[in-house]
Amino acid sequence: MPSMAVVARTTHAGLEYLVTGRGKPDWGPAALDAKTFPNVREATRAALTLPGYLRAFALPVLPGA
Length: 65
Prior knowledge:
This protein is of the alpha+beta class. It has 1 helix and 4 strands.
């Protein structure tokens, strides 16, 4: 079973999650609002297309969370 993943970044306030991935990226503090990807590979691909100063990364979603 493939695992779902999200794109996240760290800030002074904690983790922020990618909410939209097209155009200007929007970030939000709630993991429930995050855009989900079908697997970690696709989330990593999305994170790598963002500008370097954002330093985003893929984060697997735990089953049942």
